[in-house]
């Protein structure tokens, strides 16, 4: 089962309990106060009070070795100081977005996120399998995903991307069509983001940072050029960074990636991350069915009858390391 989504009250209750525990561990030091991590770099973090204003300047803090695992979005106990403050404890997370590093080790990227916005664009060309990987990760964490098609100013009507997006819409995912360049769809984004903490994920060059700038022009986030030869982004954003939007809500801009391994998840969790598989899981002849070539597989029967799309099934096979072919 995918993780249960916590209600806001439950999340708050957990945070309150954690805060008391962390403050006790901190020696009950009256100077310690709660903060939120805006960005992490090396052994330092930029921290602000939880109710910070969009234009507030964060305090640079050294991260004490005992609370080394803090990431963007984490609630922490910190002590202001000059020139550097210090982060002494991390509070419990309601969620964490993780991603494998170069050596395949899973590393947290952002915490306390309640929406994952998967950004795609006509250029660089979207990879449906990468979208599916993000969706599986989001479903597994119990975080609501949505798809944002950016750069609609580059599209002719009835473009092939519509078919792709419609297929995700039919699975129940929300789709927003926007342009950071022309401002089309900005109002929809504002409404969608207003009451949540949303992380923007997706390939380098799709315009994640440009969307932050659209909604919060004073943020002045650096955006990159697409390289003309390969129409790929250049990994302009190098660290996840939290922004408070003037119209409400929080956005985390994250570095673009080309690949997203789900090696840490069991095949069962991956199958459950494909939402349309869920009604059929449990109907297979073998309880440990991987839905590949086992006889009596309910998922394959659903693919054959057209209830599950062959594309998504092929994508599932790729993710669990089997050949995509049927
Ligand atoms: N035509 C068009 N170009 C856009 C739009 N949004 C962003 N771009 C361009 O796309 C390029 C990449 O934008 P970024 O915002 O840096 O992309 P990113 O997703 O943050 O990339 P990384 O930080 O590398 O992950 C820039 O040249 C932007 O000007 C849009 O809506 N329309
Ligand atoms: Mg960026
Ligand atoms: Zn099966």
Describe the structure.
The chain is of the alpha/beta class and 326 residues long. The chain folds into 3 domains: 8-90, Beta Barrel (OB fold (Dihydrolipoamide Acetyltransferase, E2P)), CATH 2.40.50; 96-253, 3-Layer(aba) Sandwich (Rossmann fold); 267-319, Probable gtpase engc, domain 3 (Ribonucleotide Reductase Protein R1, domain 1, Orthogonal Bundle), CATH 1.10.40. It contains 8 helices and 13 strands. A 6-stranded mixed sheet has the order 10-9-8-11-13-12, sandwiched between helices. The protein has a 5-stranded mixed beta barrel with strand order 1-2-3-5-4. Strands 6-7 form a two-stranded antiparallel ribbon. The longest helix has 18 residues, at 8-25. The protein binds guanosine-5'-triphosphate, magnesium ion (MG) and zinc ion. Residues 150-151, 153-154, 179-181, 204-210, 223-226, 233-237, 255-256 line the site of guanosine-5'-triphosphate.
The number of distinct structural domains comes to 3
Mean pLDDT: 87
N-to-C SSE string, H for helix and E for strand: HEEEEEEEEHEHEHEHEEHHH
Q: Enter the CATH topology name of the largest domain.
A: Rossmann fold
Helix content: 25-40%
| Number of helical stretches of at least 4 residues | 8
- β content, as a range? 15-25%
Count of distinct strands: 13
Bound molecules: guanosine-5'-triphosphate, magnesium ion, zinc ion
Unreliably modeled segments? none
SS-derived structural category:
alpha/beta
CATH architecture of the largest domain: 3-Layer(aba) Sandwich
Task: Identify the overall geometry.
Answer: globular
